Amino acid sequence: MIKPDDLATLHIHRLIFHDVPKRMRGLEAAPVLSEIEATLDADRIAHLKRRLVRVLGSKSGYDIQFRPESQSPVPELIRDYTKGKQRPDEFVPLSQKFAQFLFEQQTGSSSSGVLSIMDTTVTGKRGIVVLKLEREEGAQLELSTKKGKRTFEMSVLDNLVLTEGTRLFKAALFVRTGPGGDDFSSGACDSQRPFGSTDELAQFWLRFLGCKLIEEPRVATKKFFEAALLYVNDAITDPVEKTKVYDHVMSEMSSEKKTFAPRTFIEEYVPKAHRESFESFLKEQQVSLKQFPLDTSEFVGRLRRRSYHTAKGAEVRVPEEEADIVRVAEDSIVIADTVTRVDHK
Amino acid sequence: MSRSDLEQARVSWLADEASFREFGQLVKSGLEAEIKRLGIKAEVSMRTKDIDSLIKKLILKPEHTYESLGDKVGIRAVVRYQREVDEIVASMPSVCGCSEPDDTRQRLADEKDERVGYISIHLDTWLKDDHSLLAQFPKTKYRAEVQVRTLAQHLWSEISHDTSYKSRTKIRKDLKRRIHLLAGLIEVADNEFSRIDDDMSKMPDMAEFMILKALERQYYKLSARPGNTDLSLEVIRHLWQLYEQSPEQVSMRFGVLLDEKQAVLQDVFDQMTKTSKGRSAFFFQPEILLIYDQLQSQPYKLREHWSERFPPEELEMVATAFGHSFA
Questions:
Q1: Most exposed of A22, A87, A100, A188 (fewest Cβ within 10 Å)?
Q2: Do B147 and B13 belong to one domain?
Q3: Chain A closest CA to B325's CA: distance in Å?
Q4: Does residue B125 lie within any of the structural domains?
Q5: Structural domain that includes position B102
Q6: CA–CA separation, A240 and A4 (whole Å)
């Protein structure tokens, strides 16, 4: 899981660009590969890092992990490169392999782009950043030669990465946390197509990376929903507050929003006195506080409510899927359930 | 001292000065690191004696030879309060080998000593026995004089340097009395600065001062760069109530925060030192720790509250430096 402290301590040591066009039927194309890494100054590194934080730390950033059944060579390349000591001489060939694979994948509606690979550390732990920037078809990137080797001019960085207006980023950060093949903290972001979308293009970046979201959206949503209800029932004693928070949970879960951010929910809807303990409770229940795609498919029946209003002002609300516990006659309403609590407003 | 001895001293110093400078830099770095660890705001400087001063001193102090002359390297730390002088002096043995402090308070109390003036503490220092560069800078040759002073003591020292206050020559009694009075005045000022500082940070209606003091104590462990106090107080006044705790409770948070996050914070401070482009003007301010703390716990409330008074772009820059994104 990538945390703000990880992004804060991200250091970029090497960087390289490759121009990766789209493969089009009948047309010959090939990636233009740099042969040496780019030379960076402190200001550009700092600026580049800020852009990365803004995308990887944004609401569109998700925790990811390697997908065991993936055909992508990316996980193995990352595992191998981050193992042991830094090997600067292997950086350029590694990045070229990424570019070559991206070129093979870039067909159909996926667009041409500039691929940047960065050799990084996060609090001393080895890491790799993969960044794809969209560029207009036909736009020329300036190539130059240094010591007889091809490389892209810094104008690529200035024009495509460091321009505040550039929004079209696909980014990923992998940080090695241990010697094992899956000992990584990883996060990814696609600012064009949130991973929550189900269409093919939204999955392109994850498929290229050979990764999947750490938690299926339906699982993350259900875990939050259940933990939140448990907390509301057991920890909030004031009946007015209890009802308010409960209603907010139901309303947010039933909304048309594509994504849900527990931390924002806490700040907006949980009474101040409960914020810290609610957050701790969610952590105890292994509920991620980061944003996840909202998917209520696992408990959609529990969100629907049927309400009964009586002539004397009583109100009975039951989950739609438990509606058969209510028996309504001409002058009575009977609920076949056990009373667990009575609130006085 | 003969003319040939002085000439030899000149030749020796021209040959030795560079290595003494290197040695002085080592001791200075160690002292700066210790002052940072203590969380004290200080100006630390180092100089090697210029050749003319060295020769003049040998002429004035014929009991010394080139080798025995003590302050070829001088390192000075100037702090705000006397208690900070005492803290630094007490921790000097952890930085380097050092003599007992030469405290002029004791010397001035000696009735037989004719000199008058104000207090100042000096220590003779050398590399510790386990220092990796001891062979290059043996303690028999490489010594530095470390002075630790308050600003008021520094004022006295700077003025008296060009006068005869420090002279061993007998001074007329009425003049001596006036110098004593002046020195006393400065000592009173020093004591009052400390007392006012203590009192201000304890007054219940001056919460922002209390919190600023607590923030400074931790901030100077990360950076020696002073902030703008007016801005600090304005930011603290505006933000501290986000905690919904008493000023005492808020003040206690920052020590814990630094214990837990010092490595991360130091890393970010080091990065921010390297570039000024895209760095918020609010970064090198003690209250940056309060902002970081709030970013960790309630970033959106912080942004909402912040934007009522300060430019949101500045918070965005601070947030990005600490790995947070509002996007």
A1: A87
A2: yes
A3: 5
A4: yes
A5: 3-106+120-151
A6: 35
- Tell me the C-alpha distance between A207 and B285, whole Å: 44
> A248 at the B interface (CB within 8 A)?
no
Q: Does B146 fall in a domain?
A: yes
Cβ B264–A123 below 8 Å, yes or no?
Answer: yes
> Nearest-CA residue of chain B relative to A2?
B323
For residues B144 and B104, give the distance between their C-alpha atoms in angstroms, rounded to a whole number: 18
Please tell me whether residues B135 and B225 are part of one structural domain: no
d(CA A59, CA A261): 8
- What are the tens digits of pLDDT across the range B15-57? 999 999 999 999 999 999 999 999 999 999 999 999 998 999 8
How large is the angle between the packed helices A91-105 and A200-209, nearest 10 degrees? Answer: 150
Same-domain status, B209 and B145: no
Separation in Å, CA of B221 to nearest CA in chain A: 18
Query: Please, what's the b/e burial string for B149-181 (b: 16 or more CB within 10 A of its CB; e: otherwise)?
Result: bbebbbbbbeebeeeebeeeeebeeeeeeebee
Give the 3-state secondary structure of residue A311: coil
Q: How far is CA B222 from CA B38, B89, B258, B271, in A?
A: 10, 21, 9, 12
Instruction: Confirm whether B167 is domain-assigned.
Output: no
C-alpha distances in Å from residue A245, one per residue of A236, A266, A300, A320: 9, 10, 19, 20
SS3 letters across B242-279: HHCCCHHHHHHHHHHHHHHHHHHHHHHHHHHHHCCCCC
B267-321 pLDDT, tens per residue? 999 999 988 888 999 999 999 999 999 998 888 889 989 999 999 999 999 999 9
Q: Is the pTM of this model over 0.90?
A: no
**Which of A45, A49, A51, A291 is the best substitution to test chain B (most B C-beta atoms within 10 A)?**
A49
Global ipTM:
0.72
Look-up: residue for tokens 């690191």?
B33
Residues B246, B317, single domain; the answer is yes
Domain contains B23: yes
Cβ-Cβ contacts under 8 Å, B296 against chain A: 4
